[in-house]
Design goal:
This protein is an alpha+beta fold and 727 residues long. It contains 15 helices and 37 strands. The protein folds into 5 domains: 258 residues, no CATH class; 46 residues, Laminin; 32 residues; 96 residues, 2-Layer Sandwich (Phosphorylase Kinase, domain 1), CATH 3.30.200; 212 residues, Transferase(Phosphotransferase) domain 1 (Transferase(Phosphotransferase), domain 1). It is 25% helix and 23% strand.
């Protein structure tokens, strides 16, 4: 009688990420305050035991239900019971014991798995079976584990046995991968110890990317009269950890376990190039793409070892102590950060014709006078070199202190931001020879990058312990804002007492300069309207198009720069913050002629505060007058009085642009400015509406040139709006 079909599911795992540090340890592993080992197995971060001790997907349980502490993968690891007809009848909980966890040099975890078996009596009827399946997908919220294809292999033991494995998501033939092998025995004398090539034993390699496998026994062969091989066995095992013995066909224990290796990786991102926030937090660490599935792992840089997943986890390797052969015979080894140097010992010199360091004994035929001369020269040279080294050391130490004080450890990880050295910045600005003027926090210089790009270099705020986070947050905000109407931050130099910021160059200065100082610059209404639209688009992007909404906090003509094409660029983000609902400013900032009175009263700085300031800028554009602030007098107060009295701002319009044909556009801009300056912030338009209204005015002006007459803004909006066209 043919035995019933028996299906055995073998699910096997892959391991988790690496280390985030124990404070104060020389080579920190576990997170501070967390359990660092279980049952003699080290638990390095990103693995951890207990809440807040591990990176998501890397939890380890320390279980002592058996009376002995042992690390386990969390969750119910299950093995399927397919019943005598091959249908899934239920799931049985089992636990997977962790044998070791490694973060370097390979990201892998070793676990213990049970051997699957199926046994038959002398008539060929099945008498016992254990499917041996494991399911560890429930152990990781990030799907970090993969069965290591380079470190494991599949073994099948038995006679008259063909077992094939299916793995992965359903595909054309129910699984995305199939592989298997045949183990056959003519008689008991056939299988030989150490020989696993098909007689009583066979083995195959695995493909990469596997998170599970399922085994199925071919039912075409009879198992009757096989008393020398009553059972079939199947298991995935670490390479080199199992050697076939013919006796295993008959005497392998039913509870036999095997070690299995899982690769793990950080799979929040598909690769190093797609990282948003790298887990390689240690200095002297680097990122490498995973070799088994998508994701990445971290390594210490050459010459360093430790845990790259924790702060200061990668420590310098002292090659002089760890490697006796680091330097050749008759030489002295000196350890340096990330490497070492070799110097020939006293009485020996470097062999001239040697491509590598090779020290040979010095010739004794050397005149005494020459020796004295060389000694004196060398002595003086050593003194000079020592003094220079001391000077360089203290200079380097000061540069490092400034770099750290100014938030260098945070900003060096900001994507898209170039960190310039102090010497590099001097080359860019030709040692500060191209002076442009004074900025809000220091001098401004013109510079040229190695690719001939013109930039502006300016001083920032003085950074201390209290202001460091605000400074680094503001630099990161500016780096992430990419828009044609926002001045682009190229990079910064942090090795100076006051950090220097490197921006794209605005050749035509500020709107303040071109409005009130450059009298030879013509400013027709079309150009003023284009400048207003560009500035509004930049503020609109800040308010609504970035990942987190930003408020500028100091909108004024001085902070609207113009490039060689007079394209406006919003600049000076020293006061910019993430727009957090209900956040109050610690002090009143900004130029008083442009500060929102609601902010002055309440301390609540919002995006509508920027709208108010932009309304003041619009008044300067249409009147050509400076916004000089006084106790009872300012451009805003004067214009509002005229507008309230005459319901028009015509009396204050700039004579250079106040033509009858453009009067409609000027009146609409003044109306928009009044709306922006409304005391009730809820009645003010947002920057999206402001930009749209200005764009519609420009369109209306162009239509007038074509049609010879203006319609109302409402008519133009109704005629050209895509929404109105659809309705």
């Amino acid at each position: 009688m043919s035995p019933p079909k028996a299906t055995m599911l073998l699910l096997v795992l892959a391991t988790a990420l690496l280390v985030v540090a124990t404070a104060g340890a020389d080579n920190p592993t576990a997170k501070e305050g967390c359990q660092s080992s279980c049952g003699g197995v080290d638990i390095p971060y990103p693995f951890g035991i207990g809440a807040n001790c591990f990176r998501p997907g890397f939890e380890i349980l320390c279980d002592n239900s058996s009376g002995v502490y042992q690390p386990l993968l969390p969750g119910a690891t299950s093995r399927p019971d397919f019943g005598i007809f091959g249908f899934l009848e239920g799931w049985f909980e089992d636990q997977v014991r962790v044998l070791s966890l490694n973060v370097t040099p390979r990201a892998e975890i070793r676990v213990e798995t049970k051997v699957a078996y199926e046994c038959f009596d002398i008539l060929g009827n099945r008498t016992d079976d254990f499917p041996g399946g494991l399911n560890v997908s429930a152990t990781s919220t990030r799907d970090v584990y993969r069965i290591s294809n380079s470190r494991n292999e599949l073994y099948v033991l038995g006679c008259n046995t063909f077992i094939y494995t299916g793995s992965g998501e359903p595909a054309r033939n129910a699984k995305s991968y199939y592989g298997g092998c045949v183990a056959y025995c003519k008689d008991e004398a056939g299988p030989k110890d150490g020989a696993c090539e098909g007689i009583g034993c066979c083995h195959i390699d695995l493909p990469p990317g596997l998170t599970d496998t399922s085994m199925e026994l071919n039912q075409g062969w009879s198992h009757a009269d096989l008393d020398y091989s009553p059972c079939n066995f199947a298991f995935i095992v670490e390479k080199g950890r199992y050697s076939f013995k013919a006796a295993d066909l008959k005497h392998m224990p039913m509870n036999q376990t095997m070690p299995l290796v899982l690769d793990w990786a950080i799979r929040d991102s598909t690769s190093c190039s797609a990282i948003k926030e790298s887990a390689c937090v240690s200095v002297n660490s680097r990122c490498a793409d995973s070799e088994n599935g998508l994701g990445y792992v971290c390594h210490c840089s050459d010459g360093y070892e430790g845990n790259p997943y924790v702060q200061n986890g990668c420590q310098d390797i002292n090659e002089c102590q760890s490697d006796p052969a680091a330097c050749p015979k008759h030489s002295e080894c000196t350890n340096i950060a990330g490497s070492h140097t070799c110097k020939c010992s006293k009485g020996y010199t470097r062999e001239d014709d040697s491509n590598t360091l090779s020290c040979v004994a010095k010739s004794s035929k050397f005149p005494l006078a020459a020796k004295l001369t060389v000694g004196i020269v060398l002595g003086l040279s050593l003194v000079v070199i020592a003094l220079l080294l001391v000077l360089v050391f203290f200079q380097k130490r000061q540069l490092d202190k400034s770099f750290e004080k100014n938030g260098g450890k945070v900003l060096q990880n900001v994507k898209g931001l170039t960190i310039f050295t102090k010497e590099g910045l001097k080359k860019i600005t030709r040692n500060n020879s191209d002076f442009l003027g004074n900025g809000a926090f220091g001098n401004v210089y013109k510079g040229t990058l190695p690719d001939d790009t013109i930039v502006a270099v300016k001083g920032s705020i003085v950074v201390n312990e209290e202001s460091r986070k605000d400074f680094t947050d503001e630099v990161e905000i500016q780096t992430n804002m990419i828009h044609k109407n926002i001045l682009r931050l190229v990079g910064c130099c942090l090795e100076v007492e006051v950090p220097m910021l490197v921006y794209e160059f605005a050749a035509n200065g500020s709107l303040q300069d071109i409005l009130h100082q450059k009298k030879n610059q013509e400013l027709p209404l079309d150009l003023r309207l284009d400048i207003a639209i560009g500035a509004a688009e930049g503020l609109k992007y800040m308010h609504s198009s970035t990942a987190q909404a930003i408020r500028h906090g100091d909108v004024k003509p001085d902070n609207i720069l113009l490039d060689e094409n007079l394209t406006p660029k919003i600049s000076d983000f020293g006061l910019s913050k993430l727009n957090i609902e209900g956040q109050f400013a610690k002090k009143v900032v900004g130029c008083m002629g442009y500060v929102d009175p609601v902010f002055l009263k309440t301390g609540l700085l919002t995006q509508k505060s920027d709208v108010y300031s932009f309304g003041a800028v619009l008044l300067e554009l249409i009147t050509g007058k400076k916004n000089v602030y006084g106790e009872n007098q300012s451009l805003i107060i004067d214009f509002c009085k005229v507008y309230e009295k005459e319901n028009s701002g015509r009396a204050m319009f700039d004579e250079e642009i106040a033509t009858e044909e453009d009067m409609f556009v000027l009146e609409e801009i003044s109306k928009l400015a009044i709306d922006c300056l409304c005391e009730d912030i809820e009645e003010r338009p947002d920057m999206t509406e402001v930009a749209e209204r200005l764009v519609m005015l420009r369109r209306d002006k162009k239509l007038k040139k074509t049609l010879g007459t203006y319609g109302s803004l409402e008519d133009i909006t109704m005629a050209t709006s895509p929404i109105q066209q659809r309705t």
